[in-house]
Amino acid sequence: MNYLAHSVISLEIDKKMSESTLYGNFAGDFYKGKVDKIDLQENLKNGIILHRLIDKISDREENFLNELLREKFRIFKGIVSDMYVDHFLCKNFENIFCENPGFENVEKVERKIIKNIEKYDEFFPSDFKSFFDWLKREKVLARYKNLDFLERVFLGMSKRVRKGEILRNAVCELRRNYGKFEEKSLREFLFVKKEAEREFGLVEINKNT
């Protein structure tokens, strides 16, 4: 799961459970170590817990996309899977959330996410701020559905990770098997969303007993 998927799972959980998971879930990759040792106000740490739950579920070997990605992308299959899921989530956003008030379109939801994250700018890790400024400026979350933009993102990623050149082929591979990837990506998102909500609910029950 990438940033759009993490965010919409948080938005639904926060609404259902009166939580404040969005910031910690969105910025979760920028916080390392044990959650109870992280210097962040307590009510925001649940977002980091949720972020790690989502990553744990999507990193499972049975990820629905793995059979199509394992051979070609090997250790990078998780990165490619995350980006494909956000692409198809963005593309099909209105259909997936048509019965969810406040989720009328992905552009509106992106603005809501950005506004919510900005409220916590005093807590931004230094390396998160520049990333968030880029993401906000480029309207990244709502542009994931654009394949040319997605290709630019993969190109940038390929330059930042060791032996990442293979990521430059990700959009070409996506175009080649577009229908299969769409079906499996949406299936993966809905599975992870359901499991994350269930496991996060159990975490909250255990904390309160």
From TrEMBL:
<keyword id="KW-0378">Hydrolase</keyword>
<dbReference type="Pfam" id="PF04336">
    <property type="entry name" value="ACP_PD"/>
</dbReference>
<keyword id="KW-0443">Lipid metabolism</keyword>
<dbReference type="GO" id="GO:0006633">
    <property type="term" value="P:fatty acid biosynthetic process"/>
</dbReference>
<dbReference type="InterPro" id="IPR007431">
    <property type="entry name" value="ACP_PD"/>
</dbReference>
<dbReference type="GO" id="GO:0008770">
    <property type="term" value="F:[acyl-carrier-protein] phosphodiesterase activity"/>
</dbReference>
<protein>
    <recommendedName>
        <fullName>Acyl carrier protein phosphodiesterase</fullName>
    </recommendedName>
</protein>
<keyword id="KW-0444">Lipid biosynthesis</keyword>
